[in-house]
Design a protein that fits this description.
alpha/beta; DNA polymerase, domain 1; 6-stranded parallel beta sheet; two-stranded antiparallel ribbon; 9 helices
């Protein structure tokens, strides 16, 4: 599927635009400490991110063999989100060249949107604190619509909202969640190889794999 001549780019957030894993680790460890459980490492967290906060906690519990049920998971998530909301940008950073590349794309009249499984309010807060929220035309979070990634609904609804067609859009992400959402929406997918995934096989299904965010400029220069 061609990836040039695209007028709109949809971006995943965690692991694509922002390295949020350090703050996820901090908040998960805050929650674990409440239950007198040992902390997790940054390397472990990087493999569990990308499916929303509740799934992050569930994966942590399973990996650490900590017993839980739905009510306990709800409480754990509440503790995690309480800490994370107050400390959302302590250690999170934009990946190299993200802001400069977004400005370049914006200057070239490319529509920019965020399509994430992070809570919408948290996504807005984080991107605002990092100084890039104003560059995006639209943001879709975990509960903006009835379905979230890997369902294609968030992508399709974004296209509808911005009055764009499938043949004008490309998704940029880092995980199988982004890959499946883009495939379901029938738009091309660019995967970054620096993000959060333990499944490297997904690169074989991508239309393009990049190692630096600035590589996206080449898609515009080739128009």
């Amino acid at each position: 599927m061609p990836i040039t001549d695209r007028k709109m780019m949809l971006f995943d957030l965690d692991g694509t635009l922002v390295d949020t894993a350090p703050d996820f680790r901090n908040s998960v460890n805050f929650m674990l400490d409440h239950y007198n459980e040992p902390p997790v490492t940054l390397e472990e967290i990087r493999d569990w991110v990308g499916y929303g906060g509740r799934e992050l906690i569930r994966r942590t519990m399973l990996a650490k063999k900590i017993e839980f049920d739905d009510p306990k998971l709800d409480k754990m998530l509440e503790l995690f989100l309480s800490h994370y909301t107050e400390n959302i940008d302590d250690d999170s950073k934009l990946y190299p060249d993200v802001k400069e590349t977004l400005v370049f794309l914006k200057d070239n009249q490319i529509k920019l949107s965020v399509c994430t499984n992070k809570h919408e309010s948290l996504s807005n807060t984080l991107l605002e604190k990092l100084g890039v929220l104003h560059l995006f035309d639209y943001l879709v979070g975990a509960h903006t619509f009835e379905k979230r990634k890997p369902h294609p609904m968030p992508i399709l609804k974004t296209l509808e909202y911005l009055n764009m067609n499938k043949d004008e859009a490309v998704m940029i992400g880092d995980s199988i969640t982004d890959l499946r959402a883009a495939q379901g929406a029938e738009i091309p997918i660019v995967l970054v190889d620096y993000g959060y995934t333990d499944n490297k096989d997904i690169y074989n299904e991508a239309d393009l794999v990049i190692s630096n965010f600035s590589n996206l400029k080449e898609l515009i220069r080739s128009l």
